[in-house]
Specification:
By secondary structure, this protein is α+β, with helices and mostly antiparallel strands. Helices cover 22% and strands 23% of the residues. It is built from eight helices and 14 strands.
Length: 338
């Protein structure tokens, strides 16, 4: 993995400033929080001594950056994830970035109830150097039963730049979702989200408090009792799309947490009834991602086709496979939000 210059000299005009502030200017490719972590972990020396982030420096002092693991401490006191070989569907890869098409059913990070068998375990087997990065380079997450594209940074510089792009909303994430009920037009949901007050595994829209959350959606296909949507995230809160669509009374088909019990529409064909009963997850797929390469600056526009179970459900609704292909190929409609 790339590492910063091993030795730096405090330049003129910097006397009296905090060490972490000076390092942030000397190493702009690394975040302030990452530099602070290095200092606290003892990976930085100032004239041979172990400083604090707030230590005041003097012109001409020597800053040494020591080699060592930069991996973040695992959450919830769990042991560090171990490598586990598993098939990975790679959509894009170079020396700095990896983009994975995650299948439904695969958990992204180890946690309570899922200590092994996660995407993070598979990534560590595929590229052991990812152990040096926070969360093995995984930039964002998808729910276990949501399929689609995930960005993984392969170097610390790439990780820093991509995290900044996520925070500044410079990365476009577009989903495909099948929701319950006919929708007449696209729109937006601007509603803060927080942990549910009584059901702690769920999120909920909050009238007061919560974190700001904005979801945009467009109609791609209409069926008598369902709507096929393109969805774009402006923010990335836990369960955001699922919570927001349920909030506007169009929950995602198959969503066990926010969709309520399955209702097979009256008059549904035997094929459609079977497809709806057999779809055991939320019909949500991270279809497209657009971002700027963190090192080369080249624009990247990547997409992943709908998985077979999702395509089969749409085929049962549309009546034929060709109609599904046409729906899937539709671009983001540019109509005015309503």
């Amino acid at each position: 993995m790339e590492s910063p210059q091993q030795q730096l000299i405090v330049p003129p005009g910097q006397s009296g400033r905090r060490l972490d502030q000076v390092l942030a200017e000397l190493l702009p490719d690394y975040s302030r929080s990452r530099l602070k972590q290095w200092i606290l972990e003892g990976q930085v020396r100032l004239d041979g001594a172990s400083p604090e982030p707030r230590t005041r420096v003097l012109e001409g002092q020597v800053i040494d950056l020591l080699p060592g693991s930069l991996a973040s401490t695992p959450a919830d006191g769990c042991a560090a994830p171990s490598p586990e070989t598993m098939p990975l569907l790679i959509v894009f890869e170079d020396a700095d970035v990896l983009v994975i098409n995650k299948p439904a059913g695969l958990v992204v990070h180890p946690g309570a109830g899922n200590p092994t068998g996660t995407l993070q375990n598979g990534l560590l087997a595929y590229a052991p150097e990812l152990a040096e990065l926070p969360r093995s380079g995984i930039l964002h997450r998808l729910d276990k039963d949501t399929s689609g594209l995930l960005i993984v940074a392969k170097t610390l510089i790439a990780h820093t730049h991509l995290v900044r792009d996520l925070e500044s909303r410079a990365i476009t994430r577009e989903y495909r979702a099948l929701c319950v009920g006919p929708m007449t037009a696209g729109g937006s949901v601007d509603a803060a989200i927080a942990r549910h007050r009584t059901q702690r595994t769920k999120m909920a829209v909050m009238d007061f408090g919560g974190r700001p959350a904005v979801t945009h959606y467009r109609v791609l296909g209409r069926f008598p009792h369902h709507t096929f949507l393109a969805v774009r995230l402006e923010t990335g809160r836990t369960h955001q799309i699922r919570v927001h669509l349920a909030h506007v009374r169009h929950p995602i088909v198959g969503d066990p947490a926010y969709g309520g019990r399955l209702i097979v529409p009256a008059g549904a064909s035997a094929e459609l009834a079977l497809a709806l009963r057999g779809f055991r997850r939320q019909a949500l797929h991270a279809f497209r991602i657009q971002f700027t390469h963190p090192v080369t600056g080249a624009p990247l526009d990547l997409s992943a086709p709908l998985p077979e179970d999702f395509r089969g459900l749409l085929a049962a609704l549309a009546g034929d496979v060709a109609a599904v292909a046409r729906l899937e190929a539709l671009p983001w409609p540019e109509q005015t939000l309503s």
